Amino acid sequence: MAKNKRESDAFAYDDAFRTMEGECDDILIPFVNFIFGEQYTRNAIVQRMRNEHFVVRSGGNEEKRITDSHFKIIEKGLCKKYHIECESKRYDNSILVRFLEYDTATAMDDIKWEGNKLIVRFPQSGLLLLRGSKRTPNEAQIAMKTPGGEVSYPVRIIKVSDFTVDDIFGKHLYLLIPYFIFNYEKDLGVIEEDEERMDSLAKVYDSIVERMNEDQERGLLSALSYGVIISMTRKVLNKLTRKHETVHRKVGDSMGGKVLDLPEIRAYHQGKDEGRAEGREEGLAMIALNMLRDGMDFSAVSKYTGLPMEKLKEIKKS
Asked: How confident is the model at residue 233 (pLDDT cuts 50, 70, 90)?
């Protein structure tokens, strides 16, 4: 029973991550910029990729693997692929085996031939740890010893416990907000019985909502993303604080400001589809044109942008 509850909690935390990653570019792009040291602008194009793959085990049996996120970001003629996992367990090096399985599977979606050479492009990989410790590294390495020599790549690691509210808003790491309560996990029992500490925690979340309001007004956070963050924060709270009624109620009240439930989020999303699709198409056309001007062939540009060959020929003539 306890194991089933832990698994249910982990699924809820993963679902919150997948929802923010899958719906909100203005949440995802700053997070990618921070963890991988990129400099994407708000005009970058995010393409979500297939996140279900099958791993063949001994005996020929296949096991399904689902990544928390697998996507490409395209801007100024450049395209990079990313894989990020959200993990609620304490860090253990064994998670790197899972990363290698996932990264290999996603790399096989994007193979390329140059004569007799097979080129396999691995994604940039990162790990978001909801529960960290001082012994958790900031980066791990996956190394493969091949007949042609050793090849390695990094797995970047960030821990929610490393960030204050000021850090989150200063770096626009809105994706961390639903998980900020993990920083208080060890003290929830004490906070539940201490009115002063309870009020202090509620004020922290009041300030989070106030700063979200300010960033939305400044155009840094869309109304859609605002609603998703609120909904996902409440989803995480429902799991992590379910044994602490006062904490659950007071923090939940603080995060209840402009609650948009998921049907309303979907309605907002659908209402923006037409304009978003038009802007997205224009953005892809500009990226495709830059790629073609840089000498990339039509098939490669079509692969990275998803635009058909006929459309690319029109773009090049324009």
From this structure: very high
Q: What is the DSSP string of 102-129?
A: HHHHHHGGGEEEETTEEEE-PPEEEEEE
Give the number of other CB atoms < 10 A from CB of residue 190. Answer: 12
Report if pTM > 0.90.
no
DSSP string, 193-238: H-HHHHHHHHHHHHHHHHHHHHHHHTTSS-HHHHHHHHHHHHHHHH
What's residue 111's pLDDT? 87
Q: How far apart are CA 181 and CA 177, in angstroms?
A: 8
> Could you tell me which residue, 282 or 171, shows the higher pLDDT?
171
Residue of 94 and 11 predicted with greater confidence: 94
Compute the distance between CA of residue 11 and CA of residue 16 in angstroms, rounded to an integer.
9
Count CB-CB contacts under 10 A for residue 108. 11
Please give the Cα distance from 165 to 204 (Å, whole number). Answer: 8
Tokens of 44: 């970058």
Q: In this structure, which amino acid lies at residue 299? A: S
Q: Are strands 78-87 and 124-129 parallel, antiparallel or unpaired?
A: parallel
Q: Please enumerate in sequence order all residues whose Cβ is within 8 A of that of 209, keeping only pairs 6 or more positions apart, or say none.
A: 230, 254, 255, 257
The model's confidence at residue 52, banded by pLDDT at 50, 70 and 90, is low
Exposure on the CB side of residue 316, measured as CA atoms within 13 A: 17
Classify 48 as helix, strand or coil: strand
**Domain coordinates of the chain in residue numbers?**
1-162, 265-317
Higher pLDDT, 142 or 213: 142
CB 59 within 8 A of CB 273: no
